[in-house]
Design goal:
Blueprint: H1 3-9, H2 12-26
Length: 40
C-alpha cells in the first residue's frame, strides 16, 4: 500500500492514527499483535 494514496483517501487525522499504529507495530513483536491491528 502506498502511503501517499492512503493519505489522500483519508482525513489527516485518520492517516496520523494509522501512522501511530504502524510505528507501534514496528516496535512490537508481531506475534503479540491481534489480527485487527494488522495492516495489509
Amino acid at each position: 500500500m502506498e502511503r501517499g494514496k492512503m493519505a489522500e483517501a483519508e482525513s489527516l487525522e485518520t492517516a496520523a492514527e494509522h501512522e501511530r499504529i504502524l510505528r507501534e507495530i514496528e516496535s512490537t513483536d508481531t506475534a503479540c499483535i491481534g489480527p485487527t491491528l494488522r495492516i495489509k
